[in-house]
């Protein structure tokens, strides 16, 4: 058995002649019913994964422990109606508006409206009165200041907020399937989505009324649109890409910073198109792609400002305030909870390993189930991270093999940049901050699973199925191929022989035109 | 024995003394009553404590907690001090005392700001029901965020007074301080008044927005008429582009003017126009690549025009390698 790491990459030895089917105008030929069936299959898989994840999330919504942060997001539900008064008091410069960008609050508000709940379910939770309060020293939490002063939402409102987030978390799983499908194949998509759906940290946050799942959703969508931009860099896609990065920024700030590496990539392509001695078509592609990417910070920032009325009167100054406030908040969290403080990148890496390889692991859960079924006592620590790293290595190999202009490069750049931003900016070890890394891990696992399927299992299965004549029913059409998004092969049809090059004979030196 | 003259003088002296004492007594009594008004307790200017518990109502932990809350308020620009005393004083007397205390202690953010507050808890030993909780605030203390004097009076009646009447002084004070903290920290200030250039932009945005919406609607007919000399519901690409550029640009300009003038209506109208332009563009501006002829656009860098022929030859050569599916 031979291991083919890049079966659809360039310079691949083609045992069977394959070629793309295109029309004379260069467009892909329609794949007809087969293409529609493939789409339908993908839609079915995506919806099934969404339903599965939603079921899992909703199953723990009522039993999940309460976190005071949930009250903050519910409290700001009313932002969605305050958008209609963009110069009103809500958008003045004060603690709450400065505290968090508004997308999560908008999402909560939409969720509350959709479920017929109040947009002002509770007052602000004051963390200063959570502990060491001699005036309300009751051991019963329901008799403490925040609970009796109206900062605790009612059970119905809390559940409504949690259901909103459970829905968002399920959407993330669905989008991860699509991303994995684009990057590798269906198996990769399914495994990546399942790895996310059953991840304890994903479930924990998807069953609390927080905004972090929205961050993951926008990150995943940004990756997909980034992939599509690299594939066909139209202005429409570029605008959508920048808008998603801006919306991500309006959720948790960090995704807006992703526009910077994207712009650097764009600048690189523009410069390369000017100075690189390459064929015209290649330079043209570089220039087109580069111009679409280099403007991403502007588009992202414009979107960020547009959706956040607080910034309208002073976009740059108040954006600076926002970032400064977040840094200060993290520092104060670290001061309040001494054990949570993160002083350096080394510590941040250690905490990340502790969180993802020890405290929150999907692999442990799967192993536990297997142990229950088979009566074994297997225990492997850090299995998620190991799989993730293996997937990341394969991902990097894709990038190296497919070139800088490949869609894989963009997705890799996005997820690696997000990881770097989180680890570099981590000042407080709070469980929520690691959720984007769970998404990154799921993407890497999807790559690993997709490659493993296409290189190890699919050929064997195809051979077995071929012998039994079931290959047409059992295997997806793209089994055995990594980039399933590049379709339309017609196996067995040999390309026509290349026309022989005819050289126009040059007149011999010295011959006279007069002849 | 006294002679009659001496006795008469003594009698006159006694009567005069009696009259004098009778007449003077109220004045003396009044003066001593004035002297009995409680003195304002001294507070050193550098005293870090903002709560002074002469009545011994609070525990040490509670004092620290209140001090922390008062410091927090001070950090938010709200100066508040607390004083407790034991006295048999009417509410009016306590109010006067609290005002005097606020002036004497200079409870304000800056000299002359008159924006501080003193909370005075007077506990009566003989008549517990006569205990009072008095709030003396400067003229510029309210509004506190979105909380004004009336709101705070309501908070007092609903949350502070009931606990105070039950002699739960610590809880009453906690409610008062924490509601103030809430107002100062978690409710927004009022927007600044629109004046000067902002007022001008405000009016311009409202008027300009109304004009622009109408112009954009009429432009659906006027722009094709001007560009193509005909009325049509199938405008050319060029016409649609000009329409989009003119009205899209104008709507963005309107949005900027609205932001300067803080006009929500202007923003709304700008969004309306932008939505109209987007809809028109989406409806009438077909993508260039989907022309029925199947022609393909090939962009060429100006400096490389000479290579166009070669590039096209290469493209056609590449096409030859593909076989259409039959």
Write up what this structure looks like.
Chain A is mainly alpha-helical and 515 residues long. Helices cover 63% and strands 0% of the residues of chain A. Chain A has 22 helices and no strands. The longest helix of chain A is centred in the C-terminal third of the chain and has 34 residues, at 435-468. Chain B has helices at residues 4-36, 60-75, 91-104, 149-165, 169-186, 197-228, 237-261, 264-284, 308-320, and strands spanning 51-53, 79-86, 116-123, 132-137. In chain B, strands 1-2-3-4 form a 4-stranded mixed β-sheet. Chains A and B meet through helix 4 and helix 14 of A and helix 2, helix 5 and helix 9 of B.
Question: Brief overview, please?
Answer:
The complex is a heterodimer of chains A (515) and B (326). By secondary structure, chain A is mainly alpha-helical. Chain A contains 22 helices and no strands.
Q: Which key phrases capture this entry?
A:
heterodimer, A: 515 residues, B: 326 residues, alpha/beta, 4 strands, 8% strand
Quaternary organization: heterodimer
Arithmetic mean pLDDT of chain B: 84
Strand content of the residues of chain A, in percent? under 5%
What letter string, H or E per element, gives the SSE order of chain A? HHHHHHHHHHHHHHHHHHHHHH
State the shape of chain B: elongated
Distance between the termini of chain B: 160 Å
Largest sheet of chain A: none
Strand-residue proportion of chain B: 5-15%
Radius of gyration of chain B: 41 Å
Uncertain segments of chain A: 1-27, 483-490, 510-515
**Helix and strand succession of chain B?**
HEHEHEEHHHHHH
Tell me how many strands of chain A there are.
0
